[in-house]
């Protein structure tokens, strides 16, 4: 699980071009949207594609992402339970 | 009709032109066939949160426009008009590569959103919260001139008072590889100072952004007046000499009143003849300069020529490195710029000292 969390942080920083944020700056419980990392709706679409491409998880309803992308902890747990690759 | 002035400028190029307090004090010499723009510290102008989705072309355009606006002491403008020959190439290549590499699946939105030609104009407007006229001209190597012409018409007719006008293009690997295949880019690396002596096909490709605040309100700090700008997609059976003569005649001028001719020679042996015809012909007694050994060739490289002309007219100084001959006028009052790329999209721009 810890490896998955680290992998998620690295992917988020790289794919969302978070220029001023380092992987080690992200706490497992930080809010990814809003007051936390400050991600926005375009980032949410990027994360949905990332789930599909990297873990074989298809989110048919983008609203599902609101709960799944709450934090690294929540996201990692969801991926761990639902991944197909 | 109201006169149109260049009130301020901002430039990002292969030279350190982003500092308006200097004027080519230090020339960077290159030996290559593709050269990249010198980056200012973009974080000084754009916050990381805003810049994280911007490719280099967008950053160059946004920062060049900010430098121009700062110099003009303006918070916003009435309109934003951008010229770009190829638009946002980096994001276009990224998006198209993703389509191919991922078998048309897993397509992400960011690079697609940022790949449109009007991204630069849009991002500038978002930054300024400018809801005025916003237009992007994509007319190959007369994209910048088309933007200037549109702004000039609006300002002359008092439809706007201040307009941000600029030219911007970025380069990217795959597009460059295609240009290399068809010899648009020189096969050999060329030293900047030997560009016009290379006698080979193709040009040294590059990138950059040059933005100007144009206004029908003259300021003490204004750089120049834009008297006329004209574009010609093709010349037909008319020679460039006759075209230049007709252009001057329409403006009640002749070659003798032109103090400086600024030429867009790029060292392509197949097409520099257009420039040579003018420099050795009707303008042989006029001081001549060139600039693409400093900024390279790209679709909006002529905007660097206008930047150079503006600086010369304001400072009355001519850097040694741009001189094509040693004719020396007493001062610089009237400057003519001529540019073309691969024998098409010719343009004349006539500037006058304020």
From TrEMBL, chain A:
Annotated keywords: Phosphopantetheine, Phosphoprotein
Pfam families (alphabetical): PP-binding (PF00550)
Statement: the UniProt record of this protein carries the keyword Transit peptide: no
Domain Carrier residue range list: 2-83
Source domain of life: Bacteria
Protein name, as recorded: Acyl carrier protein
Organism, as annotated: Flavivirga aquatica
From TrEMBL, chain B:
GO biological process: fatty acid biosynthetic process
GO cellular component terms, semicolon-separated: cytosol
Organism this protein belongs to: Flavivirga aquatica
Domain Beta-ketoacyl synthase-like N-terminal residues, every copy: 45-219
Pfam families, alphabetized: ketoacyl-synt
Protein name per its UniProtKB record: 3-oxoacyl-ACP synthase
Molecular function per GO: 3-oxoacyl-[acyl-carrier-protein] synthase activity
Keywords in alphabetical order: Transferase
Record PANTHER family: 3-OXOACYL-[ACYL-CARRIER-PROTEIN] SYNTHASE, MITOCHONDRIAL, POLYKETIDE SYNTHASE-RELATED
InterPro entries to which the protein is assigned, alphabetical: Beta-ketoacyl_synthase, Ketoacyl_synth_N, Thiolase-like
């Amino acid at each position: 699980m810890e490896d998955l969390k680290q992998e998620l942080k690295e992917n988020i920083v790289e794919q969302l071009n978070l220029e001023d944020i380092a992987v080690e700056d992200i706490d497992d419980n930080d809010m990814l949207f809003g007051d936390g990392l400050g991600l926005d709706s375009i980032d949410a679409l990027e994360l949905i594609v990332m789930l599909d491409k990297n873990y074989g998880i298809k989110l048919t309803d983008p609203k599902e992402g609101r709960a799944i992308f709450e934090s690294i902890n929540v996201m990692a747990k969801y991926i761990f339970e639902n991944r197909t690759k | 009709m109201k006169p149109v002035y260049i009130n301020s400028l901002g430039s990002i190029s292969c030279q350190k032109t982003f500092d308006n307090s200097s004027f080519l004090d230090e020339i960077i010499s290159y030996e290559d066939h593709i050269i990249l723009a010198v980056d200012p510290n973009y974080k000084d102008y754009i916050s990381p949160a805003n810049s994280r989705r911007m490719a280099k072309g967008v950053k160059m355009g946004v920062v060049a426009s900010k430098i121009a606006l700062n110099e003009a002491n303006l918070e916003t403008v009435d309109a934003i008009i951008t010229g770009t020959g190829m638009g946002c190439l980096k994001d276009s290549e990224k998006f198209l590569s993703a389509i191919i590499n991922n078998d048309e699946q897993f397509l992400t939105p960011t690079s697609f959103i940022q790949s449109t030609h009007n991204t630069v104009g849009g991002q500038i407007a978002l930054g300024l919260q400018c809801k005025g006229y916003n237009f992007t001209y994509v007319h190959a190597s007369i994209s910048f001139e088309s933007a200037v012409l549109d702004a000039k018409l609006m300002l002359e007719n008092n439809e706007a008072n201040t307009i941000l006008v600029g030219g911007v293009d970025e380069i990217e690997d795959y597009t460059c590889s295609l240009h290399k295949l068809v010899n648009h880019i020189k096969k050999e690396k060329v030293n900047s100072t030997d560009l016009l002596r290379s006698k080979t096909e193709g040009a040294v490709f590059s990138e950059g952004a040059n933005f100007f605040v144009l206004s029908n309100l003259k300021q003490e700090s204004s750089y120049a007046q834009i008297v006329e700008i004209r574009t010609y997609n093709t010349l037909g059976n008319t020679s460039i000499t006759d075209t230049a003569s007709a252009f001057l005649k329409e403006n009640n001028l002749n070659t003798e009143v032109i103090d400086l001719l600024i030429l867009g020679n790029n060292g392509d042996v197949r097409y520099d003849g257009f420039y040579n015809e003018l420099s050795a012909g009707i303008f042989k007694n006029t001081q001549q300069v060139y600039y693409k050994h400093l900024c390279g060739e790209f679709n909006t490289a002529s905007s660097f020529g206008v930047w150079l002309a503006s600086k010369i007219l304001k400072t009355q100084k001519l850097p040694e490195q741009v001189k094509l001959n040693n004719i020396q006028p007493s001062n610089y009052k009237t400057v003519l710029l001529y540019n073309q790329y691969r024998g098409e999209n010719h343009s004349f721009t006539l500037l006058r000292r304020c």
